[in-house]
Amino acid sequence: MSEKVCIFGSTGSIGSNSLEVIDNLNNNGLDFSVTYLTTNSSIDILSEQIRKYSPKGVAITDELSCEKFISRNNFKNLEIFKGRKGLLELSERDDFTVLISSLVGIAGLEPTINAIKKDRRIALANKETLVVGGEIVNKLIKKYSATLIPIDSEHSAIFQCLTGEKMNNVSGIILTASGGPFLNKTAEELKHVSVNDALAHPNWIMGKKITIDSATMMNKGLEIIEAKWLFNLLPSQISVVIHKQSVIHSMVEFIDGSVIAQLGIPDMKLPIQFALTFPDRVVNNFPKMDFSNPFNLTFEPPDYEKFKCLKLAMESLNSGGIYPTVLNAANEVAVELFLNKELSFTEIPELIESALNNFNDNNELSLENITETDESVRRKIKEKQKFYSK
Ligand code: MN
User: Residues with beta carbon < 5 A to ion ligand 1?
Assistant: First the structure.
């Protein structure tokens, strides 16, 4: 069977790993062709990818970068989709069978939703799609018989542990968290960490946004919400354990007390490949677990006071509706401000908490409502920030 792949965010960490996975699948006799690639502004990496994979079209969402790309390159028979509008247009094309959705942040929501409106496979790395739009996404998946397979390593692990099991035999899931680079810092020390300290993740090499989210543990908070929608669980069925080694990628507990875990070395290529080949598995030469030397696996409960983002995410899930959108928008702005050194590390949860506390809305969840809320939360924070920095 031949698959035509579209990658949203092909020049990022998940995107480039996905292309390596596709190389491996094709080397093993499978037939995956790359039909569409997209980037925000990494046009040099995109050009290399075009030379290697000859896609039918590309989207470049940053308009200036798109113009630069057009003036510098002259690829034959390449369709170019310009700007955010172009990306949305591409997402409505029906000539791809697999979508790898790896945009960063809420920017991934609308194009992913468009792509779901067809009977195709969605390999999802953009967790915000489910964090803010889980309820809507689940209805659409059913309506259009799309298949959603998670790429996020924890969710891939749970998906693998659940294969062949009945959901009513599941008592809960346990998401593992490395704890990030600041696990052993005191609350006082956390106040003074730098951007570079926060960008140095002990186990995973990832993009900047998710690396900061891992340091604050908001990443795990978002993953709790993501898991709720992916596996149709109650918030009370989801727990988090600190597992520093990132070897167990998550676990499922069953009603009889049995716990099933999925293990692997921390490398995104495995969950990406699984999302593309499920229910099959395909051999590869990716690094493997080595049990011939001794090593230990450790577990400890998270500190919800020190990592307040985790607590805020759980609270927003319990409030439901639009609250995860508020949480996510405030977090995206907070991370951006932190990376620009306009906010300290411990001010990240403070800013998110105040956004949640100052928000009041009981509107029904819709794409319009999500988009409006996302924009208004961002605008309000930026106005306030301007006021403080005067
Ligand atoms: Mn993850």
Answer: 152-154
